[in-house]
Design a protein that fits this description.
The complex is a heterodimer. Chain A is mostly helical. Chain A has one domain: Fumarate reductase/succinate dehydrogenase, transmembrane subunit (3 helical TM bundles of succinate and fumarate reductases), CATH 1.20.1300. Helices cover 80% and strands 0% of the residues of chain A. Chain A contains 5 helices and no strands. The longest helix of chain A is centred in the C-terminal third of the chain and has 31 residues. Chain A is elongated, with a radius of gyration of 20 Å. Chain B is extended, with a radius of gyration of 21 Å. Chain B has 4 helices and no strands. Chain B is an all-alpha fold. Classes of the chains: A mainly alpha, B mainly alpha. The interface between A and B is large, with 42 and 37 residues.
Chain lengths: 127, 132
């Protein structure tokens, strides 16, 4: 079959978006990870719906919950950032706005994710 | 503005508004909408643990919103978004693997997603209201 792409482009395998499968694969990988995490978190949310300060902190600070909660927040924010990027790319047509929004979403995700991880560690290890 | 940059005034192909909504298209749009809502919800979840790491007074302020009617609606809405996006996301993963593309199968899996997300949402709301 005739291929209109140059041999170099084919070897790189990055396609028309110049990004290859990286974004697509990361979104699926985080989606699979989130299946058990979201089920666990939804059940926990319902169980904790009236929890006061001490109950909430005792729950967050237990070792297993710390690990699962950090995973849920970090993987969830990454999945959300990847998804919002696609939405922005689809609906925002001006290049400047598109770039600015993608950068802003990424920054917000990283800042909130890092702050949440620090908060969880602080509760767990005391501070 | 150069000629190349000028917007072309050609007729556009028909878009969403000319089509009758169908289960498949409505669920597709809902997947994006719930995804956007859950992204905001993830920030809210992060805010919750940040408040829990602060002092009891700050946490009580945050929790007083959660236990208000508006807070219940937000959290209840979050649960629906999560269950829907979860169920439809699994449907998407099956498509990614190459299964379920026949029209009949797409409709059947669509209705399963609707049923699962509504049942899970109702169950979580009932459980949540009993615990409060």
């Amino acid at each position: 079959m005739n291929d209109l792409r140059s041999p170099l482009a084919r070897a790189r395998g990055l396609g028309s978006a110049r990004d290859g499968l990286k974004h697509w694969w990361a979104q699926r990988l985080t989606a699979i990870a989130l299946i058990p995490l979201v089920v666990w978190f939804a059940i926990s949310l319902v169980m904790l719906s009236g929890a006061d300060y001490d109950v909430a902190r005792a729950w967050i600070g237990s070792p297993l919950v710390m690990v699962l909660l950090i995973l849920t927040i970090v993987v969830g924010l990454q999945h959300g950032q990847l998804g919002l990027q696609v939405v922005i790319e689809d609906y925002i047509h001006g290049d400047g706005w598109k770039l600015a929004l993608i950068v802003a979403v990424r920054f917000i995700a990283v800042i909130f994710g890092l702050a949440a991880v620090v908060a969880i560690l602080r509760i767990g290890f005391g501070g | 503005m150069s000629v190349a940059n000028r917007p072309a005034h050609r007729p556009l192909s028909p878009h969403l508004q000319v089509y009758r909504p169908q289960l498949t298209s409505v669920l597709s749009i809902l997947h994006r909408a719930t995804g956007i809502a859950l992204s905001v919800g993830a920030l809210y979840l992060a805010t919750w643990v940040i408040y829990a790491a602060a002092d009891a007074k700050a946490y009580a302020l945050f929790q007083s919103f959660n236990t208000s009617i508006a807070g219940r609606i937000v959290l209840g809405g979050w649960l629906f978004c999560a269950f829907y996006h979860l169920a439809n996301g699994i449907r998407h993963l099956f498509w990614d693997a190459g299964y379920g593309f026949e029209l009949k199968e797409a409709y059947r899996s669509g209705w399963i997603v609707v049923a699962v997300s509504l049942i899970a949402t109702a169950a979580s709301w009932i459980a949540g209201l009993r615990l409060v």
